[in-house]
Amino acid sequence: MMKKVILLVLLFSVSFQLFVPIQADAITLGEYEAKLEKYKKDAYDNKTAINKTESEINSANKEINNLKNELLQLGNEIKELTNEIDDYKKKIEEKLIQSRQVLEYLQLSTGENMFIEYIFDADTTTEMIYRSAVVQELIDYNNKAVDEMKQLISDNENRQKEIDKRKLQINSKEEQLVEKIETLGEKKETLTEAGVSVSQQIKIYEELVASYKKLGCTSKDVIGVDCAVSSEAGVFRRPTKTGYITQEAYYSKSYTHRGVDIGSYNRKKEKIYPVANGKIIAKYKDYYGALVIAIEHYNSKNKTWYTSLYAHLDSYAPNLYVGKNVTTDQYIGYMGETGYSFGVHLHFELIPCRLYNWSEGKCSTWNSYVAYAQKVLKDGYKGPRALIVFPKGTYNSWNSR
Q1: Strand order of the sheet with strand 244-247?
Q2: By the number of CB atoms within 10 A of the CB, which of 202, 272, 298, 300 ranks highest?
Q3: Which of 195, 219, 235 delimits the end of a domain?
Q4: Count of the separate structural domains present in the chain
Q5: What predicted TM-score, i.e. pTM, was given to this entire model?
Q6: Sheet holding 271-272: strands in order across?
Q7: Is 199 strand, coil or helix?
Q8: What stretches of 213-369 adopt beta strand conformation (E)?
Q9: How many CB atoms lie within 10 A of CB 198?
Q10: Do 183 and 261 have their domain in common?
C-alpha cells in the first residue's frame, strides 16, 4: 500500500511538471517596483546633470560675450590712443617749428646774430638778464612741451602693447571656452540620449508594475508563480500568414542584425501574430518612433525562456497590455514602417532570454539584451530560424503559418 502511495505521488509530481512551466529566475513585483524607482532616480540625476551642463554652457557663452565686449572696448581704446599719438606728433612738430622760428628770428637775420644783439642791446644789466631769461624761457617751454608729448606718446605706445598682449590672452581664452562648449555640448547630447533611454525604461516598468497590479500581483508575489502565470509556449510558428524574408539575422564586428526582416505582398494589411503562446512584457514606441511589442515564452522542451520582439508595427491590435497572456492565434498588430524603417516590413527577433527580467541579469535591460543577442549570434545561434521553419534563403514566400 505504501509503495502505491509513493508511486502515485511520483506520477502526480511528474504529470504536474509536464503542465506547469518551470519558473527559472523568478522575480517579485516588488523588485520591478524597486527597479522603477531606480530608473526614476536615474532620470532625476540625469536631468540634474543636463541642467548643470546647460548652466556651464550658458556661463561659458556669457564669458565669451564679455570677452568680445572687452575686445571691442580695447579696439576702441587703441583707436583713441592712435589718434592721440597722431595728435601729439602734430603738436610736437608745431612746437619744434615754433622753436625754430624763434631761433631763426632771434639768431639769424641778414647774416648777423640778432639773438646776441637782442640780449646785449639792453640798456642795463638787469634788462639784459631779463631778455636772456625771456628767450631761454620760451625755448625751455617749447622743449618741455615737446618732452611731455613724447612721454605721452611713449605711454600710449606702451598701453597699445599691453592691449595687444591682452587681446592675445582674450583670443586664447575664447578658444578654450569654445572647446569647452563643444565638449559640454557633446556631454549634454550623451546625457540627453541616456535620458531618452531611461525615460523608455521608466515607461516600460510603469506599464509592467501597473499591469501586474491589475492582474492581482502584490509586491511580495513572485510573477509567474504567485500571479500572472505564463502559459507553455507550445509550437513556435511564423509571425505572419504570408510573407518572405528580406534580411537574415547575423553578427559582424561592424554591425549585428539581431533578427530577420519579413516583407509581405499584403503590406500594411498583413496581420502580425505571436510566434508562440506567452505573455506580453513590453509594448512601446522606441527612440525612433517604431511601434514595438515584446513577448516572453517558456519552452519546456529545452527548459529555456525566449523573448520574441516585433518592431515597425503600423498599429496595435485592441486590448493589448503588458502582462496579458496571448496565444499564437491572437493577432497583435499590423505590419508597418514606423520608426527607422526602409519600407513596410516586420523586424522580428527571437532571443533565448527574458527581456526586462531583472533577476535573470543577462537581459534585464535593453543594453544587456542587445549585448546578449550579439553574443549568441556570434556563437552560432541562428536567430528566429533556430525554432521556426522558414523557407531557405531570402524572398522565398510562404502562405501559411
Answers
A1: 244-247, 260-263, 346-351, 304-313, 291-299, 278-285, 325-326
A2: 272
A3: 195
A4: 2
A5: 0.52
A6: 271-272, 333-334, 315-316
A7: helix
A8: 244-247, 250-251, 256-257, 260-263, 271-272, 278-285, 291-299, 304-313, 315-316, 325-326, 333-334, 346-351
A9: 21
A10: no
Q: In the structure grid, which three cell numbers stand for residue 83, read together?
A: 589718434
Please check whether residue 225 lies inside any domain of the structure.
no
Q: Are residues 250 and 164 in the same domain?
A: no
Running DSSP on this structure, what letter comes out for residue 388? Answer: S
Looking at the domain assignment, is residue 216 inside a domain? no
Classify residue 83: in a domain, yes or no. Answer: yes
Q: Read off the CATH number of the domain in which 276 is found.
A: 2.70.70.10
Give the pLDDT mean for 23-34: 73
Q: Give the torsion sign (CA, 274, 279, 283, 288).
A: negative
Give the type of residue at 194: A
Tens of pLDDT, residue by residue over 151-208, are: 878 888 888 888 888 888 888 888 998 898 999 988 888 888 888 778 878 887 887 7
Domain CATH code at residue 51: 1.10.287
Which structural domain, as residue segments, surrounds residue 280?
244-386
- Residues comprising the chain, all counted: 401
CA distance 272 to 262: 11
* CA dist., res. 199 & res. 191, Å (int): 12
For residues 179 and 251, membership in a common domain is answered with no
DSSP calls for 33-50: HHHHHHHHHHHHHHHHHH
CA torsion, ordered 74, 80, 83, 89, to nearest 10 deg: -90
| Cell numbers at 102, concatenated | 624763434
